[in-house]
Amino acid sequence: MMTADELTGIIDQICPMYLVVDAGGRIHFAGPTLKKLRPDMSWKGVKFFEVFDLLRPRWVNSMDDLLKTAGAKLHMQFRESPQTSLKGVLAPLPGGKGALINLSFGISVLEAVRDYDLTSADFSPTDLTIEMLYLVEAKSAAMEASRQLNLRLQGAKIAAEEQAFTDTLTGLKNRRAMDHILARLIGSGTDFALMHVDLDYFKEVNDTLGHAAGDAVLQSVAQVMVDCTRHTDTVARVGGDEFVIIFEGVNEPKVLEALSKRLIRRLEEPVPYGGKLCKISASAGTTLSSWNPAPIEAAAMLHQADMALYAAKRAGRSQHLFFEQGMQKDEPQVAAQSQA
């Protein structure tokens, strides 16, 4: 014959969340998983209704009532926190000596695994909970992999978009980015100023020292322009040695005049390259959105800044002018000057 301890050991493996209660409602045995849920509690001799709240059937108020639920589904929870929900079924013991109650977590199994750090060893080998946990773990792993992939794709998308709006040589915005920003500012009705900057004597640097020197000069110019502007401003390289600066929220000519003088003065500082000094200057023309009637057109403002720029070149270069009505772009004369 099998001893009580041997029988208990077998039940522990098959039903690790069982209780044996006597006719008076006192617990005699508890499965190993239940003991893990309350490791500091001494189960033996404790009354069932001191440990659990029986939620359904609602008419159960005593041990006699509980014994009448044989075969029915029981819904209960721990009285103390964490009040983990449990499902159960009761089987009476022979001779009216009490009952064996087999419990499970039901749909609260995920919370239980989290709250009590449970593993597969805490469940019956035939419990479908194990398979569900594997599926949940696999799903979590797949979702994490998907999240990481989405992050990489999003990062690649952002990088591609950034590259599409960036001048690769100088790191400044390009013409496409400038068009996008102008459209946003005009669409929002924000005041802004637009300055067109063109380098003087840049062709001479390329012709005498080579394109590598020219590239070094352009990179230096880009840094100067960034240093002389705010982080909210936009500096874009729109041609070989042409730049556009957009000053968001600026409509004061005095502010722009002071900035243009500082910028031109900085750009006149020689750029060292290969043991030699590359000397350039810059001319600039500016217009303001507030000078244009609605609806403002980006092309019209770019044309105004362009005409002011060429007026500055005709006036002797290395200076800045604001757009005025009646300005003309004398392209042949400017072209001849730029070759000088």
UniProtKB/TrEMBL annotation:
Residue ranges constituting the GGDEF domain according to the UniProt record: 190-325
PANTHER family: DIGUANYLATE CYCLASE DGCT-RELATED (PTHR46663:SF4)
Organism: Pseudophaeobacter arcticus
PROSITE patterns given in the database record: GGDEF
CDD domains: GGDEF
SMART domains, sorted: GGDEF
A matching Pfam family: GGDEF
Name of this chain's protein: GGDEF domain-containing protein
InterPro entries registered for this protein in UniProt: DGC-Regulatory_Protein, GGDEF_dom, HNOB_dom_associated_sf, Nucleotide_cyclase, Rev_trsase/Diguanyl_cyclase
